[in-house]
Amino acid sequence: MKIPILYSFKRCPYAMRARMALQMANIKCEIREIKLNNKPHHMLAASPKGTVPVLILEDKVIDESNDIINWVLNITNIFENNLNEEQIDLTEHFIKVFDERFKFHLDRYKYSNRYVDSDAEFHRSECYKILLYLEDIISDDNWIFGSKLGKLDISILPFIRQFRIANTEWFDSQLEIIKVQKLLNNFLDSKLYKKIMHNYDEWDIGSKPAYFPFN
Asked: What residues form DSSP beta bridges with 115?
């Protein structure tokens, strides 16, 4: 069987969540780190929408991060937590909220100069409202639903990381999201995060193959 090819960009939250799933399942890929302003023709031929991650398998191409996570889950259960029905529903709900509403406002907060008439403080406030909602469901343990990392954790923490980076001092001073802050710190201190953020050289035709996960 051919090794899958994974097109990725280190800091992209969608690519990060896909790498976490692949890392947890120890699925070996040839990783091709790209720059978003220099997308390889081979990637665009496989996935014309031109976003990462793109996972090229022998029989198909998966170019949505959620689909890559679900593909991994069809192979092996990478999560040890046993969720109840309410937690399963909350997982899917919050993934949708972060992929749609949170990401929309995050872009206009963090990159307000790229959008006409964008009010950065308004968009920050809209993101913050979602974090307040999230705060109410986070456990007192290390992760959202307890002591074990789950699908919701890997799906939304890369976006919360970006939100914090936009103004670290402001984020860290917010007393209403103590659990969110602790959750993010647990993530940033985790071995999983450090492994998926390994530095790879930018890929180009003729580059020596690089592999993920990095051991």
From this structure: none
User: How confident is the model over 105-146, as pLDDT tens digits?
Assistant: 999 999 988 888 889 999 999 999 999 999 999 999 999 999
Distance CA 67, CA 185 (A): 27
pTM beyond 0.85: the answer is: yes
- Whether 53 and 63 have beta carbons less than 8 Å apart is answered as yes
Residues 39 and 178: their CA atoms lie apart, in Å, by 39
Give strand pairing partners of 56. Answer: 5, 61
Total domain count for the chain? 2
Residues 98 and 128 placed together within one structural domain of the fold? yes
- CATH code, 176: 1.20.1050.10
The domain containing residue 10 runs over which residues? 5-78+196-212
Q: What's the CA gap between 51 and 14, in Å, rounded?
A: 9
